[in-house]
Amino acid sequence: MEVSWKSFIQSEGGEFKDGTLLSFGNPEQERHIASSGDLFSDLSHLALLEVGGEESASFLQNQLTNDIAALKIGDSQLDGWCTPKGRMLALFLVVRTDESKFLLQFPIELLEMVKKRMQMFIMRSKVTLTNLSNSLICIGVSGPTATKQLTNFTLSSGEQPTVVSLQAGAFPRAFAISTIQNAPQLWEHLNVKSAPVGSRVWELTNIRAAVPTVVAATQESFIPQMLNLQNINGLSFTKGCYPGQEVVARMEYLGELKRKPYRITILEDITPSSGDRLYSKSSTSGQGAGEIISIEKDGDGVWEGLAVLAVKVAEADDLTYAEDGSISVKVIQPL
Predict the structure, then answer these.
(1) Cut 0.85: pTM above it
(2) Does the domain spanning 258-335 belong to CATH 3.30.420.40?
(3) Which of 6, 109, 228, 333 is the most exposed place for a label (fewest CB within 10 A)?
């Protein structure tokens, strides 16, 4: 996180641990707000990588799972990035900022890997990669009226921040992209009618919107259909080739998806995380019963999460977090 921006967040009551924005003093109350009111959050835990150059669109079209050519300026879409075996290395939210520039938003822990691997494929293409994570600020909003607070806001300079609509959960969601110089003004505007929250509460809104994520612990664990990308505008079957495309297409047209994404809850006083394995007496697969995609605690202390599960295990309803069967996991519904 950029130093001056972090100082501003701290002056507003933000509490950090190991570089993560935990809360603004009352994490339990912030989690309750996610279920009922308007909230906003700094999104510096997500990287912003700009892919630019006159061949940027064709480059991304040949790398990602969705149809970049169909993405209009100012719009966004989810895009998976796969290995040749169809296993996901990253999941990007891609924003087209002009004809030849795209912003990729994804967990900042993957930034160096993404830059290094993408550069390998650029070779002589007229494409540039620029890390804007410390140059631009993203502020996410969620709630009954929060997105209207963004669209109705104009900076003192007369400019409006770039607003990107996101997949809604219980409420509409969006985020604004601003310069570091203008971000405090936007923050103070939102702070009048909305409540600031830590990054984990923002991730809870992603879970409730059924938006998956890929982090270091889950890289190469899932194919796109296991994360439901085909149903949330993250996967095109008509756009042409990309790494892993044959595997993904074969699963769609010839295969049977034996592992799918589900909503889960855990009531126990534990600390689960992305990539944790799940267990079941019904499982006979060497891959295990399932794996957590993402999980966060709600205002009542219940862990809400998304997980990829073997379909037979989900139907058996005997899923556990502990291998000895002592911690029950409730399967709520498929995505």
Answers:
(1) yes
(2) no
(3) 333
